[in-house]
């Protein structure tokens, strides 16, 4: 049998998929386009390239070498964006430290990742002061500041970030190396036990960038990201590379705005002042903005917002659409780099109800994503919009496992597919809708009750600001649902009213009759993880004991 082989000359260049090559588009050097950090800094893309080179030279001068791990502890900033490039382009590994973890968890991630150097914002020095005597691998620290004022600390620094860049050359010849070299590491925000490390190669990050570029750049209008947009992340840069969108935005050469520490007033001011047109966040962050007094008077009619991390409530979607916001869902996980699906509206002339239904779905798979909804035998289930199974995936950009954790890695990848733990159905138009996490499904008398569906219905009540539905053990039914409800300010309701409201959906056949066992408990706030997701495991533990 004749083999078909790709032939090339000895002088041909085998182009590696390295992060440095995301900077090769000519538009990246546009001197008119800007990168903005709060009200602190504003510079062009040409200067950005120089700053990446300066950072590479500065890090090399203090001893960073290929294979080292360099940690960053910072708010969303221009510095973080520069680290997204310079550190992996040196052949080192960027560890984006989740500064919202507990001090002991941060210590665990630093030691587990075997960090060699830490770039730390002065606001987080108290954390390092607490644990410095127990950090085993770190050779040096770099101080990150918005100014250059002196700060009180017992740590010794290799220098202050901007001073190091000022003293460094603005040219650096980044070498080629194996595209499968690890580029980044970060840790999942597990609700129990120690965080798990995930990692991604240059090849994976480049392919994720290209796949996301295609998915966001090809819609005719709705949810489109293009070169005239102004981008501002409202997802922490330590969390899955801010969903990878900074790489996408930089590849497009668009104006970028980095807000620093999230505060609703400053976020809304930046949205208006810098004319931001594209962002992404979890629902809790958007709810924070929508609850702020300045929200009503802020013009957001040109704002596109990709919602992920949790289901987009229909009530929030309707409120955003009426404000003129182009809101839509996306889906992914820490383990998936993360983007797997996006809920773009492909049809024209839809009613508001039809628009909301599509925008709140989990979405359609983006290019290069092999996504199945499968049963326990990994057999794909019917695409009838009703039959449910677990989402399992293959794409070029999935983590190959958990760092130094063979057992959990094998569980994650059992059967040759990455298991998400999400339960969903799929319709004939290829739209996926997550109905719950496997661990959060409420099993009432042998029937599955979707906590997400019940939360969505409760949020349509005018008195409900936020809710989380959890399961409680029950001797007769096995489990029964409890809804934890935060009521809007200056609005009154009670358990009887909310139960009657939900029974109306039962009578219409919208939700299972098992919901009649629902208990309502009013709370001041709902526990969240460090990245703003509802912490249902913690809620179950708290209220099962109360």
Count of distinct structural domains: 2
How many helices?
15
Low-confidence stretches: none
Can you tell me the CATH topology of the largest domain? Rossmann fold
Mean pLDDT: 92
Q: Would you count the extended β strands for me?
A: 25
Give the C-alpha Rg.
Answer: 24 Å
CATH class of the largest domain, anyone? Alpha Beta
Strand order of the largest sheet: 7-6-5-3-4-8-9
Briefly note the structural class of the backbone. alpha/beta
- What would you give as the CATH superfamily of the largest domain? ANL, N-terminal domain
Task: Give a description of the structure.
This protein is an alpha/beta fold. It folds into two domains: 19-426, Rossmann fold; 439-544, ANL, C-terminal domain (GMP Synthetase, Chain A, domain 3, 2-Layer Sandwich). The protein has 15 helices and 25 strands. It has helices at 45-62, 78-89, 103-113, 125-131, 161-166, 202-217, 245-252, 264-273, 283-290, 314-322, 352-359, 406-412, 451-458, 495-507, 536-544, and strands spanning 34-37, 41-44, 69-73, 93-96, 117-121, 140-144, 159-160, 182-187, 197-201, 230-231, 255-258, 278-281, 304-307, 326-332, 339-342, 364-365, 370-374, 389-394, 418-426, 432-437, 442-444, 447-449, 464-474, 478-487, 519-522. The strands form six sheets. It has a seven-stranded mixed sheet with strand order 7-6-5-3-4-8-9. Helix 6 packs across helix 7. The longest helix has 18 residues, at 45-62. It is globular.
